[in-house]
Amino acid sequence: xxxxxxxxxxxxxxxxxxxxxxxxxxxxxxxxxxxxxxxxxxxxxxxxxxxxxxxxxxxxxxxxxxxxxxxxxxxxxxxxxxxxxxxxxxxxxxxxxxxxxxxxxxxxxxxxxxxxxxxxxxxxxxxxxxxxxxxxxxxxxxxxxxxxxxxxxxxxxxx
Length: 159
What we know:
Layout: H1 12-17, H2 29-45, H3 49-74, H4 84-93, H5 101-117, H6 122-128, H7 131-158
């Protein structure tokens, strides 16, 4: 385990923040969180695009709250076990992308690459924005960059 407080599995807000338990992995909790987000993406991908977009907005707004609350409750800004931001970042990456195993995997790799590498402005956001928004914003930015790259790849392959 990733030394998560006991409340992580007892408090529903904390359980969501740790990605339904995926963030409690001893190694690479962000990667495990993204893997769970990838599994959850499949049913989300069946939604109408407008409904999917609304789900993204709601998941983001909920994320601001649950990440902030969990972070404050635990007294640690952006605890490694908090992976709801990875869920949202991956789901952003996959918006309007065909739900096939190879695009889902490509989206996974691109999102993890930008989330770990944190090129500008992602790194700036990660270091300078605090609270629940700060926990979420770098993954939102990584998701947007991965989304743009993935859309370019999809268009090139479609030629």
